[in-house]
Design a protein that fits this description.
Elements (H helix, E strand, L loop, with lengths): L1 E2 L2 E2 L5 H27 L1
Antiparallel strand pairs: 1-2
Length: about 40
């Protein structure tokens, strides 16, 4: 996977891929909550 100039390699095959997906979902939820708190 590539994000711009950075190449991200999933760790440990399928389990690492699932972990990265979960981390990205958690990160987006946390960022959304922080943005909502900042914009109020």
């Amino acid at each position: 996977m590539r994000f711009g100039n950075v190449e991200v390699r999933p760790l440990g095959g399928g389990a690492g891929c699932l972990t990265m997906i979960l981390i990205s979902i958690l990160a987006s939820v946390v960022l959304t909550v922080l943005l909502n708190l900042l914009l109020r």
